[in-house]
Structure formats: structure tokens, C-alpha cells
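Dear colleague,

Thank you for sharing your sequence with our group. We've completed the structure prediction you requested, and as agreed, I am returning the results in plain text so they can be pasted directly into your records. Please verify that the sequence below matches your submission; if there's any discrepancy, let me know and we will rerun it promptly.
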Amino acid sequence: MSVLTDKINALSTVPDQWAEKIMQFQPKMLNRLNKLASKLTTNSEGFIEMSASNLNLISEIMEDLKGFMTSGEYKTIVQELDAQFVAQEANTIAYFQSTFGQAPVTSFASTLYNTQRLRMLETVIGDGLSPLLYTPVRDALLDGIASGSSYPDLLDNLSRISVGNERLEGNLLRYSRQLVSDTLATTDRQFTQIIGNELELEWFRYLGGRMKTTRCFCNERNGGYFHRSEIELWGQGIEIGKCRTDNGWQGMFRGTNAETIFSWVGGYNCQHTLLPISEAAVPKKDLLNAIEKGYYNPDKATREALGLGVGGADVKIVIKNNSGFDVDTKALSSHAQLKAKEYGLSGDIGITIKKSQFQGGGVGYGMSNAEGIAKLQNHISITTDGSLTMRQMKQVINHEATHLQQSQLNRMFVKKNDMNNWAIFWEGKEFMEMKKYNRLTKAFQTSKSATRRANAYKEYINLPWEAEAHANDGNPFG
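Please find the predicted C-alpha cells below.
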């Protein structure tokens, strides 16, 4: 098998092998507990004696159990798991070396991997077993002695803890299975992403097996090619598609965002990964799809290789002049076409010219998709009182086309924040709530105070998306 196959398969085979070994080990652990519990004295009717000597035996039993769980077969199982974690780190390094000719492993990446690995080991051996094994066993012994329960009842409780029953798995298996799966997957993804970031890779392939437990989110994306900007949207709860639930998607880790999505991917017990790949490995249809959706703005060479021409494919420009004034719509359309190519815009662009007592221009807002996320649309609105020159109209298009580009590259969008309020997000992070933005625009448009209008306008044009657009517009209104 290839290094990549070993790397991907390990995300499922390592947890599966751990689970299989633990299932085989748990009956042996129960036998040990039963042997230790046989030291407890019972009365003639088979009930555990409520005696100090029996209570004193609890410490002896627990010390024996802890020794049993830090030596012999169980210690070997844990050591084998540790070796698999170390091997996965080597698999990841080998993948980057064989694919990109280098694997820039920073000291942080290496230390993080080992820190996560050791934390996991501390949880499945030694004192880390207290909450899932030692404490339940101790409580079962204490409750049995304190209540004078029947000896068979005590054994039943120890059996339930050790090997489970028809409804539940044994404690060790039930709690450690997901721990091992999530720790390996998350640690491997974090390590992989750090190296990928060092190589400035922007494309990823969603990889992993399809199992009976594979959830909708992973099933819909498995095997697919995705640009970083699209993946970041998933982390923000956008473009989830049919897999959307009230809380994002089934299995999603709470706290998933544009950054953590690369480490947590599908969430609980997810055995998939977002593998960084070179742009050359992405099929043409996926490149074109990402461009069309605005996730990807390729360079000149890539556009030419894809047959898109310099700056982008021609888009349809539709102009509606509702102002009542004469406007050279052909010249305006040609300029908009040039800007669409220059900015790499995709999709048809509608331009509406409206009559107003004020000079100026504005971009239209609308609902972007069926998920109800408000985003900038391919629509530009120019208002004029008849004195607006062609040069000024073109500069307004420059300004608003910048906003369209910001939207298509998902650098700016509007969605509900954690407080369920609509907010503007810039570069993947919440910048300000819409109600504050609306107060700001209202202030510089309608405030009776000239000072307030001036201050509000200064604050408005210094908003990062506005500052960027103003840098492109040539200052049409002086």
C-alpha cells in the first residue's frame, strides 16, 4: 500500500484494532475482579457482610486492579497503540515528502503531536482510568458492602462495568473507543494542516472510508475536492446543504468555526480528513466549479490553462436605466465587463440606474441561497440626479465590483452570530452586528448634526471592506 493509503486507513483501522483488543481483554479484567472480590466475606445466606474487614479490603482490591492495568497484556495493548500514533506521524511526513518533495515540520507541530499523543496515553493507562474504571469499581464494592447486598448482585455490577450487557458496552471500551478515534484523527489533522499551511496549500481532498456510521456531512463530501474558502464557510455554518440541522450538522463539535473545521472536520468519531493537495491534482471540473461559485480566484496562468482568458470568463451584463436620464449603457456595460474580468467575478451582473436627488451609488443586498444567508449579490445600483458623469458611473462600478469580489471570495458576508443576531463577517471573523452598521449608515445619511454626519461617514469609509473598495474607485465624488 502507498503512504497515503496507510495514512488514511489508519484513521479507522487504529481505533478498530484498539476496540477489538479491548473487547478481548475485558473478560480477563472481569475474571481478575471476580477473583479479588471473592476475598469478601458473606453470611450463610450469601449476602456480603457489613464489616470493617470487608471495607478494608477495598483498598487492597483497587491496588491489585491498578497493578493489573499497568502491566502485562493491557500495558502491551497501550504500547501498541502508542506505536501506531508514532507511525501515523511518520506517514504524514512521508506523504508530504513524496508528494511535495519536502515536509517542513516546525518544532510547534512536532511538540503538539507528541503532547496530544501523551495526553491520550495518560487517559487510557494509570490514574487516567479513574473516572471510567477505578471509581465505578470502587463505588460498586463500597455500595455492595455498605448495603449488605447479595454477592451475585455485586458480581453483576462488576460484570456490567467490565464487559457491559446487552444494552451497554463495558466502561473501558465505551469510553476509550471514541477517545482513541477522536484523538488520533484530530492530532493527525492538526499536524497535517500545520505542514500544509507551511507549504501554503489552498486545496484539499475530503478522504476517509464509508462506514455504516458515516453521517450525512461526511458522506456528501467524501472523495471531493474543495478550496480552503469553501471549507471555511462550512465552519461558519454556511453551505451545509441538505445535511443542515438546527445545530449545524449531525455530529458537529460545538465550537467548530472557520479555523477548527480543518482539525475537527465532521465532528465526533469522524474518521475522515481534509488532506492538503496541490492545485495541479484538482480535476478541471472542480476548479471551474470553485471559480463559478466564487470560492477560488485563480492567477492569470491558471485562467488561461482553463480556457477562461485573462482575468476571467465573459459574464452577462444586464443594465436597466430607470432614472429617466440619458445614459450610454453600452459604454457602461463594456466597462463592467472589463472589471468583471479584472476582478475575476463569476455569474451575471445586473446594473440598475435609478433617479435620486442625491449623487452616488450603492450595492444591492439579497438572500444568497435557500439556507437564508444574506450576502452581496451580483447587482450594482447607481443613483443619479442627472449630473453624474460617465466617468463617475464607471468609478461607482469599480467600487461596487470590489464588494462583489469580496462576497464571491467569501471575504465578507452577513449571517447570524452566536447570539442569533445578524452580523457582518470579514475575513472569516465577526466584525460588527447589522444593527450597529445600520445605525452608522443612517447617521451619516440623515443626522441633523453636521459633525455627527462627518464623523459617521469617516467611520464608515474606514470599515475594511469600504476602505478596500474606495482604494479602487478613484474617488468619484471628490
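Summary note from our side: The CA atoms of residues 202 and 228 lie 5 Å apart.

Kind regards,
the structure core
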